[in-house]
Design goal:
Elements (H helix, E strand, L loop, with lengths): L6 H19 L4 E6 L4 E8 L2 E4 L3 E2 H9 L2 H18 L4 E6 L5 E7 L6 H9 L17
Antiparallel strand pairs: 1-2, 2-3, 2-4, 5-6
Helix pairs in contact: 1-3, 1-4
């Protein structure tokens, strides 16, 4: 895994920014799934005070989309940036598993080491252990 102060942080910044841009480009602030006919749903797309209804969708798909509406994505990105502020780029201590797999209630991470919180956060954005950082111009998804 890459050193804490290096590529993984830059990769995460790019990944979070890409999700923020995608959420903002949708053009709606909130998306809500509402019951329709015979077990289906449609989406209510909200922008300010305006509301638009989508076509009929499978209920599970509508719920999935609504749970990932732009406002929730932006909230998640903001929370992830707060975690990076606490755990990325500088020495600190936090709970972590030691080499034996036991939980060490206070492990010290120095500037050149990657905190497990940063590793787990990167995993949630698609980073894989040992991954090389994307080349300039690569699209992070």
């Amino acid at each position: 895994m890459t050193a804490q102060g290096g590529d993984i942080l830059a990769w995460l910044e790019t990944a979070i920014t890409a999700r923020e841009e995608a959420a903002r480009s949708v053009g709606y602030d909130q998306i809500e799934a509402v019951d329709y006919l015979w077990g289906t749903k449609h989406l209510l797309l909200r922008r300010g005070v305006g509301v638009k209804a989508s076509t009929e969708l499978d209920a599970a798909l509508a719920d999935h989309i609504a749970l990932r509406d732009p406002s929730s994505v932006l909230r998640r990105c903001a929370a992830d940036r707060k975690l990076l502020d606490l755990h990325g780029g500088r020495g600190h201590g936090c709970p972590a598993h030691d080499y034996d797999g036991d939980l060490d209630e206070f492990a010290r991470f120095y500037n050149h080491e990657t905190c497990p919180v940063v590793q787990h956060l990167a995993d949630s954005y698609g980073w894989t252990a040992g991954q090389t950082p994307p080349a300039e111009g690569d699209h992070v998804t």
